Amino acid sequence: MSFASSQPRPMRRAEREVTDPAQIEQILRDCDDMRVAYQDAQGLTIVPVNFAYTADFGTTPHRLTLFAHSAVEGRKIDAIRAAGNALPVAFEMDCDTRIHTGHTPCATTTEFRSLVGTGTASLVDDVEEKIAALRLLLEQCAGMPDAPLLPRQVSKVAVWRIDAIDFKAKHHPAPARHRD
């Protein structure tokens, strides 16, 4: 399975697309978890995970790497291995979600910020890279910078990364209040 090689489709509501790197990074910081979708021998599935990231928005295209951890066995790990350590995935994260009820049912809308993309998931096998990724996860998810980790501790957890191929950020702000 591979992703289509055509150019990414433009966002339909282009005025909602976030292109400023600082705003994209703020979305990444403000989201607590992401959902990762993939297909394996059992079919399509989606799973929520905590994540950490590294990003380089000074390059074209922008570079984004997402890290997650899990048990060393299970469906995700089996799927990554079955794909030769290069599993195509889709991911989504959102924050600041709030429903705004309109004057009519069709005027009801949802405020949010989000990031959606595709990438390739692979297992991190190098012990030093696993430690660095787990420290990043602990810092970004739990506010624990420089957590001490030993190689024997990290051997009991799987660390996997998603190298983003394409991603877009979006902001749908709260609707303007109309005075009657």
TrEMBL record:
Coiled coil (residue ranges): none
PANTHER family with a match to the protein in the record: 5-NITROIMIDAZOLE ANTIBIOTICS RESISTANCE PROTEIN, NIMA-FAMILY-RELATED PROTEIN-RELATED, FLAVIN-NUCLEOTIDE-BINDING PROTEIN
Originating species: Bifidobacterium anseris
Domain of life, per lineage: Bacteria
Protein name: MFS transporter
